[in-house]
Amino acid sequence: MKLNKLLCIGILTTAGVLQADTTQPANPPFYMDVQGGAGSPYFFHDDQWAAFVFIRLPSCVPPDFNLLDQADFTPAFPGGPPRVFLCPLTVSGTAIFKSPGDFVPIQANLKGLGAVPVWFVKLSEVQAILAGNKLTTAQLLASPSLRKGLANLYDEVDLPGTNRPQGQGNGSIEVVASGSLEDGASFQIEWREMGVINGDGQSFVRHARIAFK
Questions:
Q1: Which DSSP category does 64 fall into?
Q2: CA 10: distance to chain centroid?
Q3: Domain that residue 23 falls in
Q4: Among candidates 28, 77, 82, which has minimal Cα distance to 54?
């Protein structure tokens, strides 16, 4: 499970400081719902297609930024805030913490603002890109199979296992999205990932569907 996304550095208040409250607005320091690090890169996909969901506008993503690094803390200017925070969000949401000051929420909810950019690329092409341990918007734009769309519906619910009785790896991530492509076709995304008791901290994709009509 993409736990790094849900750490304190991954969900901040819009002011960049956690307040003494158990519910905070989500303002993650990344551009896309993707994660690198140990193990296989994390992104939404089925056995044919990968779906890259931009939670910030693609137009302001640095074309050479490695999206597998997830968080971008590069200053927008000397002494300034991270440049990622100057890139408008395409989603809104909240992070719910068990206690004020906790680093990992017990639940995070994200909802699209009506036009969430989603880029689809054939899984085989993505795997070839990832062989170089790097993923950039420039590489995705160069992919022959690239299809761009906008999701008018995007719902994501994350339940990290860290603060749950079963322990790390026993939470869940569920995503439902639908919208239209630039070529006029429609798309749907369904993703469900869940952990298991005594699963050694690992979670498993229980359901993945990417469909075009």
A1: T
A2: 10
A3: 3-212
A4: 28
Q: Residue 182 and residue 176: Cα distance in Å, rounded?
A: 20
With CA atoms as reference, report the closest residue to 152 among 188, 122, 123: 188
Contacts 24+ apart (CB under 8 A), 125-129: 126/43, 126/45, 126/50
Contact 95, 26 (CB under 8 A): yes
Q: Quote the tokens at residue 76.
A: 């927008």
Q: State pLDDT tens for residues 108-143.
A: 899 999 999 999 999 999 999 999 999 999 999 999
Instruction: Tell me the chain's radius of gyration from C-alpha atoms.
Output: 17
User: Cα dist. 192→85, 105, 129, 137 in Å?
Assistant: 28, 19, 25, 25
Span 156-198, pLDDT tens digits = 998 876 665 555 556 788 999 999 999 999 999 999 988 765 5
- Count the Cβ atoms, other than its own, within 10 Å of residue 66: 15
The structural domain count of the chain equals 1
User: Quick check: pTM over 0.90?
Assistant: no
Token digits for 54?
């931009």
The DSSP secondary structure of 140-208, one letter per residue, reads HHT-TT-EEEEEEEEEEEEE-STTSTT-TT--EEEEEEEEEETTS-EEEEEEEEEE-TTSTT-EEEEEE
Q: Which two tokens stand for residue 118?
A: 């989603």
Left if phi > 0, otherwise alpha if psi is -120 to 50, otherwise beta: which for 184? left
